[in-house]
Specification:
The protein is of the alpha/beta class. It contains 22 helices and eleven strands. The strands form three sheets. It has a six-stranded mixed beta sheet, with helices on both faces.
Length: 528
């Protein structure tokens, strides 16, 4: 069992713990406990691998810094000036001088031998070691250290290197480690935060970037420096960055013999659970209630919906969420066949549903409900919590609750009157009348009718169009104004509206929107 302390060990809080091929998991836990007793935080490396976690990620940065000098992209002073302008106390070349250029050269030499010859492409650091210029320890490296401090020439910050370069490289290496089964995303993040004394790590950064942004930057760096280490990792190539950083990445399955496909049992749910999230690309995600034949909503479905809302909340690659049911039916409502120990338990079940519906209304994405077959009771409340409600002509909607001795319990008595007015809502709730798509559009319960054909296919095409034409930040703020504005005095709502406009005026999207309008082209919003 390995314990890798960080330098200086009396100060640094991180210890990477690394099992051998036959290490008993009990021993791993005991070693982690020892780290805790020493006042240190243990990060588990799942299997022995060159560089473990932190040094593996740092190696790509080191190679990048060496190649910058090899290619004459910028001088050390220009690069350090840029990074200091970004708030860092010390630039990367000053730091390398401080630690020792021989350490950086040895790092690249080691990884070139055990991981990839590409790490040997950098030559400047090795040449400086041969010349005896190791940095502070010899009095000279990238800078003059004869006085004990670096004499850094005045230089303008370079525009040829950015923090995004290093972020992309570290994210790429993190994804490789996750794919190789060396570490979990949370441990990669914790390792870089504690091991490098940073406020955040590459996993946090990746959560605010799209797969396309990271891939584009890596493609650019690979071409610019002719280095395969910088090429996008397989999951990024396949658009699965989000799966990797959120721990859903599965290693490629080994080839298997072909078997005759079996037809699914009629009425059986798709594999994956009672509620599914499908990322379809192009800014669109699909949420599927997966309890056919009627897709009724129970506690497990509510838990899944709550989890999915959390999962997509800050995902920059998702702009529009389509909520639908597996098969021809949206949902016939809540599953009242569940066991409830007493009236308090039933009350809490309803309260939980209310909170989740509320979260859905606040989701900073455009949401679309596909009302088909049946949308009754709790299902209609679910649809009403979405921004846009598409309805087939023959869908049956209504609130049957009072015929069963209860009331709509997932915000129906509160949200429906706000959508269609008290008179229409009173009629729907108290008479349990069922209405079809055209009537729902007429009274404002549905946004528009779905033409004949596959309802889901139509909804997804509509969602794809909206994902490309609507500015994400504007959508987020507009939703908050529409939903929260109805809950405050009108003058307060107007102040909120003005504040939102001020925020939007500083975004990149407003510039793109105006430029696209004047240029008579489609906008390409980035959600920034």
């Amino acid at each position: 069992m390995g314990m890798h302390f960080f330098n200086p060990p009396m100060v640094m809080k991180l210890v990477e713990v690394i099992p051998g091929a036959k290490t008993d998991p009990v021993v791993e836990d005991q070693v982690a406990e020892v780290c805790g007793k020493l006042g240190r935080t243990a990060v588990k490396v799942l299997k022995d691998s060159p560089g473990f976690i932190v040094n593996r990620l740092n190696a790509a940065d080191t190679l990048f810094l060496c190649l910058i000098l090899d290619k004459g992209v910028a001088t050390p002073a220009e690069v350090d000036a840029y990074f200091k302008s970004q708030g860092l106390p010390m630039g990367p070349y000053e730091l390398t001088d401080f630690v020792g250029i021989d350490i950086a050269a040895d790092q690249l030499s080691y990884f070139a031998g055990v991981l990839s010859p590409e790490y040997g492409k950098g030559t400047t650091f090795g040449r400086m070691v041969k010349e005896g210029n190791l940095g502070k320890k010899t009095g000279k490296g990238f800078y003059d250290w004869s006085t004990g401090r670096a004499k850094i020439p005045n230089a303008a910050p370079t525009e040829k290197v950015t923090t995004m370069d290093l972020f992309a490289l570290e994210i790429n290496e993190a994804v490789k480690l996750i794919e190789e089964g060396v570490a979990k995303p949370d441990d990669v993040e914790k390792g870089m935060v504690l091991g490098m004394n940073r406020p955040f790590g590459p996993i946090s950064v990746a959560k605010d970037l799209t797969n396309a942004e990271v891939k584009s930057k890596l493609d650019e760096l690979e071409a610019k420096f002719d280095c395969k280490i910088f090429a996008p990792a397989r999951p990024i190539q396949e658009g699965k960055l989000r799966d990797a950083i959120e721990g859903r990445l599965s290693p490629a399955a080994p080839p298997q013999a072909k078997t005759e496909a079996k037809a699914p049992t009629p009425g059986a749910p798709k594999a994956g659970g009672v509620i599914l999230l499908e990322r379809l690309g192009g800014g669109v995600a699909k949420v599927v209630l997966n309890r056919p034949k009627y897709n009724t909503i129970n506690g497990e479905v509510l838990d899944g919906l709550d989890r999915i809302i959390t999962e997509v909340w800050s995902d920059p690659e998702i702009r529009v969420v389509v909520v639908t049911g597996e098969g021809p039916i949206f949902s016939s409502g809540a599953d009242l066949g569940q066991f409830f120990a007493n009236h308090v338990a039933f009350m809490e079940f309803n309260r939980r549903g209310e909170r989740i519906m509320r979260r859905l209304t606040e989701l900073p994405k455009l949401t679309i409900a596909v009302m088909k077959g049946y949308a009754l009771g709790g299902a209609l409340e679910l649809a009403a919590s979405c921004d846009i409600r598409l309805a087939t002509e023959d869908v049956q909607m209504g609130f049957p609750e009072v015929t069963r001795g209860i009331v709509p319990g997932w915000s129906g008595t509160q949200r429906i009157p706000r959508l269609i007015g008290l008179t229409q809502a009173t009629s729907l709730v108290l008479t349990s009348e069922r209405i079809s798509g055209p009537k729902a559009v007429q009274i404002g319960l549905a946004t528009k009718l779905i033409p004949p054909g596959d309802p889901d296919e139509y909804a997804l095409k509509y969602a794809a169009e909206l994902a490309q034409s609507q500015a994400p930040v504007a959508v987020m703020l507009a939703k908050r104004l529409l939903n929260k504005g109805a809950e405050v005095p009108s003058d307060v709502g107007l102040e909120m509206e003005a504040a939102a406009q001020g925020v939007l005026f500083g975004t990149e999207d407003i510039k793109e929107g105006v430029a696209a309008f004047l240029g008579k082209r489609k906008p390409e919003f980035k959600g920034k």
